[in-house]
Amino acid sequence: AQLVESGGGMVQTGGSLRLSCEASGFTFRRFNMSWVRQAPGKGSEWISSISTTGDTTYYADSVKGRFTISRDNTKSTMYLQMTNLKPEDTALYHCAKAVRVDLPPRSDGWGPGTQVTVSS
Fold this sequence. Notes:
This protein is an all-beta fold.
């Protein structure tokens, strides 16, 4: 199984980015999926999850109303649309399989991550 994130970059406060997570080596449509992030000097933060069909989602309070998770099972790809970005969103963003939408993903099997940097 492989997960590869892309779409990160450097933006100013208030900007937007869309992250992608391309999956391979497993049946993507059968798995709930999550996004987690790691900020410099901090632990990981579980920020969003989506069910296999996309009809159930979870957002951490820190991103609720600003980020939107989605997936395209025909492309084995998950997305994270990020708007109104803040400097505190600066982190390395990883995607991961999730056992349940309402629980954080396991700490292994994450993709390598894509860096998001928000300048003030």
